[in-house]
Design brief:
This protein is α/β, with parallel strands linked by helices and 154 residues long. It folds into two domains: 1-110, 3-Layer(aba) Sandwich (Rossmann fold); 112-154, no CATH class. The chain is 39% helix and 25% strand. It has five helices and eight strands; from the N terminus they run αβββαβαβββααβ. Strands 1-4-6-5 form a four-stranded mixed sheet. A two-stranded antiparallel sheet has the order 2-3. Helix 1 packs across helix 2 (47-56), helix 2 packs across helix 3 (72-85) and helix 4 (115-129) packs antiparallel against helix 5 (133-143).
Amino acid sequence: MDSRLKVIVGDGGSYVRQQAQAGEGGYDVIFLDAFDVDGMAQSIASVAFFDACKSLLKPDGILAINLWGSESNLYSTCLEWLQDIFVDKVLILPVRKRGNIIVLAFNQDVGRYDFKALQHKAKQLEEQYHIEFPIFFKDLNKHNPYTIHTVVTK
């Protein structure tokens, strides 16, 4: 395993709050699965939690979070918080044939990616890992017609 990778299993809300209060940070990416069998954990269902996540990221860092679209009120609220906190640099990726929606929130200094380069990289990754990255990229473009331009140039 890469020494830069840190996997924390536990209460994400407590961990993020502790790290933010301690002035920690410098994360390139935070991956967050916000749900368990009972729904979204209460410790992370707040604007303060997502604000703390942003503060832990590097200026060009990315928050990737798994939300459930079936909990529409909570999903809408979380999406609103993320759009406010990350100044609309937020993309959604509904997971086909599932209720999951992956949300990618980009910190302020994330550069803009080239559309054709991303398409090419998606094809390479599909060949390497046998995962449908070109379809994911197509879906990102499809489901974010008004915000894709904040992180991708065509």
